[in-house]
């Protein structure tokens, strides 16, 4: 079987967006979420993984395998049998139970054999797991409204692919859309059940029927009114029925009743009526006048119906609609945020944002995103989705104050127009009529009070204030994302320029160092030859001058070599890998053996030094410079150097402590600057580059370096290095 194409490289973004778009269309095609989720697992294979399974947490708290897909359909039945024989372990730290319980994803870029041994139940289980050839896995939660009710598991085996953090982000987006579809389907089911309950309540609810005299006074008995309100016949006779009407509604009911009697027209009013159990029922009362031959009212026949359940159902429906709109808004915000997180040019981001808004808000027929150019003081069209418009109607450049869009840019205030075709600022009334556009909404894109653009939308129905609030929120996100991306593009350009400059400087340093050493070698050779051949044959001044020349040449060679080493720290380093820092220290001490023997130094290693992620050559050089520094700046007593390491979070903190001459606090920062020395070369030789190299090495490894010292009390240099990553902590430095 040929391995499926990898979701990486230059086409990663396109493939990911296409997969998400297909998943969105699939999830929105049916309210039968179990069927669509099963289809979703097949959609993910083989484009994202070799295996894909989906588990749902039932109302009874039991996790149930809903669907499995594999590149080889024949293995799906085998997966179900394997799940029956070996159900997931609830204690597995990377399993579906842990993901559902915590709501956090799990990523295993590699699955070593020891992990299989630990995770399997018995020898047969281990044999099957090894035969499956599991290589990499990730599990992501299905969460909505703060509740996790399932997990999506993806595994690579046959293809040999290794999941990355980018794959995990794509899987989390896929799971998020699936969770939203499940939640919407469940909400719809709940709404249908609520409507069915409401209809049942309406049929079961009693309805009072009553008859009044022409003046509205009650004379006849009404058993249904007595049952409806609990009033006796004597209590509701005449206008006594008003006593069970809520005090706040009585005046409105009386006036409406009087008006209906005056015009002899049917009467209808909604009021609160006291029921026999003391509760207030929302009641709809209707009365129809019965006329005699002369057209005079003979009597009124009316009904009173308890519509409390109906109103509650309507309120529930409104709440569900509000929640649905909130979910649409959240989905819109999420997609806009995802678009703005891409590393595309700002113009492409604006076009993608416009397309996202048209797709998520069906009430919008046309969405435009304009950016503001501060130099030209004009608005430029960058994003355009929905209806097409000719250039005469939709130019690519607008001045501030020109048309509806320019008005928003000039005022920097939102603008809502629901009678678009009558607005004089509209560029073409004919275009609006042909496309049946009746509304316009413009929102300024502002960052710290400064205009960066305008969001403009057109609709075929009137737009509400709620839509204005929604788009204002989206406009703020777009404004922040646009300004951030502009800053990133500018920063990237500066970074590229700086990188070119640094490369040129490093090349210059290398060439200069190399070319300078050639004449220095010649000068050194001849001055040393002079010293050997003519020492003692000339006067004392000549011998002294020759010694000065030899010493100067030697110091210049050391300076050039150290400068070359400093320039190569960031460019000639090796790849980071796990290594034993104790071995690196031993190599450094071996290189310093002559100086250790000369000074009679004692080196103490406190405990076993750890493994770290580092460049072995540079770590050895770092230890050699720090230990050599301790031996060079020694006091009257023989040097004693203590090296130890302590784990602090996700990094190791190393210390190199000596009993030397110490350093005053005001020089702590200065000593790490290239060519900075605190002593004369006659007293302590050196070029002043060693500690600068240490700082550059540590910073290349993502660490920090510093010191604690007092004059005459020794010095403790400290630096940090990252710990060696484990399979459960992906994304470590490389």
* Uncertain segments: 201-205, 677-684, 729-734
Major pleated sheet: 6 strands, antiparallel
Q: If you average the pLDDT, what whole number results?
A: 81
Beta content: 15-25%
What's the end-to-end separation, in Å? 33 Å
Q: Taking strands numbered 1, 2, ... along the chain, how are they ordered across the largest sheet?
A: 12-11-10-15-14-13
Alpha-carbon Rg, integer = 41 Å
Helix content: 40-55%
If helices are DSSP runs of H or I spanning 4 or more residues, what is the number of helices? Answer: 20
Structural class: alpha+beta
- How many strands appear in the DSSP assignment? 22
Q: What sort of overall outline do the alpha carbons produce when their principal axes are compared?
A: elongated
Describe this protein's structure.
The protein is of the alpha+beta class and 734 residues long. It contains 20 helices and 22 strands. Helix 12 packs antiparallel against helix 15. The longest helix has 70 residues, at 465-534. The chain is elongated and about 155 Å long. Mean pLDDT is 81; it is low at 201-205, 677-684 and 729-734.
């Amino acid at each position: 079987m040929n391995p499926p194409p990898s979701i990486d490289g230059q086409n990663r973004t396109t493939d990911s967006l296409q997969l998400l778009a297909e998943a969105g269309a699939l999830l929105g095609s049916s309210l039968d979420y179990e069927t669509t989720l099963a289809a979703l697992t097949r959609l993910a294979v083989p484009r994202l993984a070799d295996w894909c399974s989906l588990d749902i947490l039932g109302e009874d708290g039991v996790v149930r395998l809903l669907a499995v897909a594999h590149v080889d359909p024949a293995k799906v039945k085998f997966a179900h049998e394997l799940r029956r024989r070996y159900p997931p372990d609830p204690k597995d730290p990377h399993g579906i139970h842990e993901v559902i319980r915590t709501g956090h994803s799990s990523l295993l870029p590699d699955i070593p054999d020891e992990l299989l041994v630990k995770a399997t139940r018995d020898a047969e289980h281990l044999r099957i797991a090894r035969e499956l050839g599991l290589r990499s896995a990730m599990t992501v939660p299905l969460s909505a409204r703060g509740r996790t009710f399932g997990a999506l598991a993806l595994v690579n085996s046959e293809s040999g692919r290794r999941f990355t953090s980018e794959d995990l982000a794509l899987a989390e987006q896929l799971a998020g859309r699936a969770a939203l579809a499940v939640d919407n389907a469940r909400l719809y089911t709940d709404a249908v059940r609520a409507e069915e309950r409401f209809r049942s309540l309406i049929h079961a609810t009693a309805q009072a029927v009553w008859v009044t005299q022409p003046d509205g006074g009650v004379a006849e008995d009404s058993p249904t009114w007595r049952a409806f309100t609990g009033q006796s016949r004597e209590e509701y006779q005449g206008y006594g029925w008003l006593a069970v009407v809520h005090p706040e509604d009585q005046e409105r009911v009386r006036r409406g009743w009087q008006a209906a009697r005056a015009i002899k027209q049917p009467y209808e009013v909604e009021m609160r009526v006291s029921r026999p159990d003391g509760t207030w029922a929302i009641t709809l009362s209707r009365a129809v006048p019965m006329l005699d031959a002369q057209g005079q009212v003979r009597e009124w026949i009316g009904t009173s119906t308890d519509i409390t359940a109906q109103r509650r159902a309507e309120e529930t429906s409104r709440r569900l609609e509000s929640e649905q709109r909130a979910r649409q808004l959240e989905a819109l915000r999420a997609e806009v945020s995802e678009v703005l997180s891409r590393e595309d040019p700002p113009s492409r981001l604006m076009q993608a944002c416009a397309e996202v808004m048209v797709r998520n808000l069906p009430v919008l027929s046309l969405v435009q995103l304009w950016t503001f150019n501060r130099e030209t003081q004009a608005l430029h069209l960058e994003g355009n989705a929905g209806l097409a418009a000719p250039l005469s109607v939709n130019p690519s450049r607008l001045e501030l104050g020109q048309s509806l869009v320019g008005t928003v840019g000039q005022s920097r205030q939102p603008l809502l127009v629901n009678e678009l075709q009558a607005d004089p600022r509209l560029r073409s009334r004919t275009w609006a009529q042909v496309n049946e556009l009746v509304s316009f909404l413009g929102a300024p894109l502002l960052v710290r009070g400064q205009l960066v653009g305008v969001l403009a939308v057109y609709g075929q129905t009137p737009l509400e204030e709620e839509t204005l609030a929604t788009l204002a929120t989206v406009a703020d996100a777009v404004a922040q994302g646009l300004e951030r991306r502009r800053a990133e593009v500018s920063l990237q350009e500066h970074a590229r320029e700086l990188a070119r400059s640094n490369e040129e400087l490093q090349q210059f340093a290398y060439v200069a160092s190399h070319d300078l050493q050639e004449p220095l070698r010649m000068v050194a050779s001849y001055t040393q030859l002079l010293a050997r051949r003519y020492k003692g044959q000339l006067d004392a001044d000549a011998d002294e001058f020759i010694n000065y020349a030899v010493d100067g040449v030697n110091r210049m060679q050391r300076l050039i070599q150290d400068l070359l080493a400093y320039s190569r720290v960031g460019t000639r380093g090796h790849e980071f890998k796990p290594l034993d820092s104790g071995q690196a220290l031993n190599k450094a001490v071996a290189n310093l053996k002559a100086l250790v023997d000369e000074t009679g130094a004692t080196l103490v290693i406190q405990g076993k030094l750890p493994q770290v992620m580092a460049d072995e050559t540079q770590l050895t050089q770092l230890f050699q410079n720090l230990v050599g520094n301790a031996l060079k700046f020694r006091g009257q007593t023989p040097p004693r150097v203590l090296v130890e390491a302590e784990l602090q979070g996700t990094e190791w903190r190393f210390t190199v402590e000596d009993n030397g001459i110490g350093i005053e606090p005001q020089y702590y920062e200065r000593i790490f600057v290239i060519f900075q020395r605190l002593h004369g070369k006659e007293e302590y030789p050196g070029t002043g580059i060693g500690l600068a190299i240490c700082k550059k090495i540590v910073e290349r490894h993502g660490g920090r370096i510093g010191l604690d010292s007092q004059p005459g009390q020794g010095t403790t240099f400290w630096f940090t290095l990252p710990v060696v990553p484990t399979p459960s902590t992906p994304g470590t430095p490389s």
